[in-house]
């Protein structure tokens, strides 16, 4: 064999080995990497119980309690269960235990049927109405399956209209807001929020800000932008209850510490942390807590209820607007 042929044969062999190695790496790590970069795990081949479990547990390493002995123990149990399982359904309970050990009570593995039910559920509509000279903004939970732009536009346009029609105060009603995507919530309320950092997400790797610039929000949930400008200096009463959770609590914290704002109600649900969601081919999803919420006051929240500034409800909120700001 000539020298040239030997070189070409060697190159072809090396190239073949590299292709096989690349394929092996993609097979093992591909689902985790595609989930982290795209939000959806993509498997080369079948998502067997063992591969599915390995991907969920690899992703769970980002959880706020992932360095705990509880997660290490639960992870080992889940991997062992996956070796014996014939279906994905068999390993979901053990995996859910591991996910909650990694991320806390705000984390879970969502079954395919439950995720479909979430997508089909009808949600309360966002709205802004007038109560005398007070603009009353109803801010319900909003899921990633909803029309988030319409949701945000409804809130902003309602507030802008109230501003232009001479309203003197705002009630932001977060009662019953069970969370979802905070991007459209904060963007919708951007007219009554100052520009800059409204809160931060704090994790072992550092902190990242959620910022408002004009009528745009970034860093928290979906990046959303509305239009209409600002309503500077308007007093804002924020209403919460024990069902206000997750992104609802984060939206409450966006107003915390502002001179012209007070919160009223009862302690919240205690899910004030940042989640990321990864989807899987079978229709299931991993919801994992990766950071705690930090208000502009310096307070950090996660699994404890947030106390409002004032105990009470809408009567106390309206009284504050009336007595402190001559607005009714």
Q: How many runs of DSSP E, i.e. beta strands?
A: 14
Determine the N-to-C terminus distance: 96 Å
CATH-assigned homologous superfamily of the largest domain: 2-enoyl-CoA Hydratase, Chain A, domain 1
Stated plainly, the CATH topology of the largest domain is called 2-enoyl-CoA Hydratase, Chain A, domain 1
Q: What is the beta-strand fraction?
A: 15-25%
Q: What's the mean pLDDT score? A: 90
Low-confidence stretches: 10-29
- Cα Rg: 24 Å
* CATH architecture annotation name of the largest domain: Alpha-Beta Complex
The total tally of domains equals 2
The number of helical segments is 9
Shape assignment: elongated
Order of helices and strands: HHHHEHEEHEHEEEEEHEEEEEH
- How would you characterize the largest beta sheet? 8 strands, antiparallel
- Structural class designation: alpha/beta
* CATH structural class of the largest domain: Alpha Beta
């Amino acid at each position: 064999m000539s020298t040239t042929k030997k070189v070409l044969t060697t190159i072809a062999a090396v190239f073949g080995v590299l292709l096989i190695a690349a394929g092996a790496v993609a097979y093992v790590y591909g689902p985790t990497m595609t989930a982290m970069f795209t939000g959806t795990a993509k498997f080369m081949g079948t998502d067997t119980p063992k591969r599915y479990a390995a991907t969920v547990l690899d992703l769970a390493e980002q959880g706020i309690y992932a360095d705990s002995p509880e997660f290490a123990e639960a992870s080992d149990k889940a991997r062992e269960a996956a070796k014996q399982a014939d279906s994905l359904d068999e390993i979901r309970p053990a995996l859910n235990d591991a996910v909650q050990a990694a991320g806390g009570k705000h984390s879970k593995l969502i079954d395919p049927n439950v995720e479909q039910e979430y997508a089909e559920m009808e949600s309360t509509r966002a709205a802004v109405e007038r109560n005398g000279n007070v603009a009353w903004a109803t801010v319900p939970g909003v899921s990633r399956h909803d029309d988030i732009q319409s949701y945000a536009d409804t809130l902003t346009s309602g507030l802008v209209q109230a501003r232009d029609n001479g309203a003197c105060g705002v009630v932001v009603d977060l009662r019953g807001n069970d969370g979802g995507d905070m991007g459209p919530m904060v963007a919708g309320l951007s007219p009554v929020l100052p520009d800059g950092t409204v809160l931060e997400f704090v994790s072992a790797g550092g902190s990242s800000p959620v910022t408002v610039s004009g009528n745009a929000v970034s860093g928290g949930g979906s990046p959303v932008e509305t239009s209409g400008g600002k309503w500077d200096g308007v007093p804002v009463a924020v209403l919460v209850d024990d069902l206000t959770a997750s992104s609802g609590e984060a939206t409450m914290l966006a107003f915390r510490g502002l001179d012209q704002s007070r919160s009223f109600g009862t302690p919240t649900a205690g899910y004030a942390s940042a989640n990321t969601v990864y989807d899987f081919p079978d229709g299931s999803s991993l919801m994992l807590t990766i950071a705690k919420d930090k208000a502009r006051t310096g307070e950090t929240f996660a699994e404890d209820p947030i106390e409002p500034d004032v105990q009470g409800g809408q009567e106390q909120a309206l009284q504050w607007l009336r007595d402190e700001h001559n607005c009714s």
